[in-house]
Design a protein that fits this description.
about 90 residues, three-stranded antiparallel sheet, globular, 3 strands, alpha+beta
Length: about 90
């Protein structure tokens, strides 16, 4: 049975509203850094990439874990960067 969204909101209540990649790894049960980067780079989780740092909204982590609401909330992928901010984008794979 799928857990309700409220379960994940309570489980992750202690985390900040925007988490870093190491915090994202812990939230997903201690997955490795490489696996977390593949999820983010594959646009499976909405994220920001700012000065070589992945920033992931906590709500998007919850949406990733609770897929019924995922399509309605985050839709996956990186947030577009303003034109001229090319240094803040992560390199294409």
């Amino acid at each position: 049975m799928m857990k309700k969204r409220e379960h994940y909101e309570n489980l992750f209540a202690a985390y900040p509203d925007v988490v870093t990649l190491p915090e994202f790894c812990k939230m997903l049960g201690g997955i490795g850094d490489t696996t977390a980067r593949k999820l983010v780079r594959g646009n499976h989780v909405k994220h920001f990439y700012v000065r070589y740092t992945y920033l992931i909204p906590k709500q998007c982590v919850i949406d990733f874990l609770h897929p019924k609401s995922y399509n309605n909330q985050c839709n996956g992928g990186a947030v577009p960067v303003q034109k001229g901010d090319h240094n803040d984008r992560h390199p294409a794979n």
